[in-house]
Task: structure prediction
Amino acid sequence: MVLELRVPTIKGLRVRLSRLRFVSVAVVPLVFLAACSSAKTEVKANPLDVVTVGGNAKAPSLALKTKPLSVKATTTKVVTAGTGAKLAKTNAITFNYVLVNGKDGKQIESSFGKQAAGMDLSSASLLPGLSKGLTGQKLGSRLLVAIPPADAFGAQGNAQAGFGPKDTVLFLIDLVAASTPLTSAKGAAVPPKAGLPTATVVGGKPAVILVPKTAAPTKLVVQPLIKGTGPAVESGQTVTFQYTGVLWDGTPFDSSWENGAPFTTMIGTGRADHRQPGAARGPTGPWVRRHRQGCDPPRLHAGLRRGHPRRELSTAV
Result:
């Protein structure tokens, strides 16, 4: 006996399940795309987008679309990307800049058309925001750097520079060059001439300078103590150096080791430091990567420690 079993309901179920699977497969991509669309990362606006760079290459200027410009953290925007090496905090750099007050957009200062500036990114006296904003950027770049009071002049501001306690400091910076300063001078020792001071340098500490009991020189004297092998320094170059200064009677008056960082300056222009024009004149010449000692007559450091006549009339070493 043969029995024929008909199961139309099962067949119908299979059809319905097949159709359901087809619909599900068709719907999945739509769900996935919707999920992708909702997961897009929101691009936050850079507060420096309100700053426009105008002027020309030799005299750039900044304008603010809205005022005041205020940031809560040091912020950097790359205007033109460079192709050089990335800056490290150990670098000394040469750069041109425009300095503007973010409160009203007023330009405070510019080095363009004059002489490039120099600074050491590791210097304890540097605005913290400059080190934060420049470290990791590429040489050759043009940058906007906005610095809040906490990373600039602090709650007291800097009235002399034109910044109040709540003002954001805004820089346009062109990165020109960078180098990594030596930790100490290297080369052949050179004994000083008779009648000149001697110096002993122990790493990380101010130099011990012994001044002879003789009359101080009346003209600028420069005496190499270690002859380096680097290229000769030319007027207008930026150099970084450690220094110790004493008066002819042996009284110390300043030391970069005590200040916590080397000193970086434009050399040979008379602008090394407003207190020490002799410092700008003396080092010009083959003194890169070397110790050098200078005797600076009173007229070349007349502004040193004003209010102390004895110091103003003393020869500095």
Remarks:
- The two ends are 127 Å apart (CA to CA).
